[in-house]
Amino acid sequence: SQFYKRAGAAISVHNFHDKPHKAYFSEMEAIFDRYQGRPHWGKLHNKTEKEFSVLYPQWNAFKELRQRLDPERQFINQHLETIFPV
Can you tell me the distance from the alpha carbon of 37 to that of 54, in angstroms, rounded to the nearest whole number? Predict the structure, then answer.
């Protein structure tokens, strides 16, 4: 959870799908990084698996559970490959 063992709030950043978003999202992510923001792993972000393992204290436990429940990787898409590589 983004709120595991700490108080927090959720901030969502949106953009229309047909508008340029990479620079905008990167600028927002830099601000969130200053405050150890934890991105929603199902939303667009530039984080790697290693960064998620630092930000989310139970990351390895979750990865093991995800692998056990979805060994065929049916629920992994191109976006999730960055944080759940083979």
Answer: 11
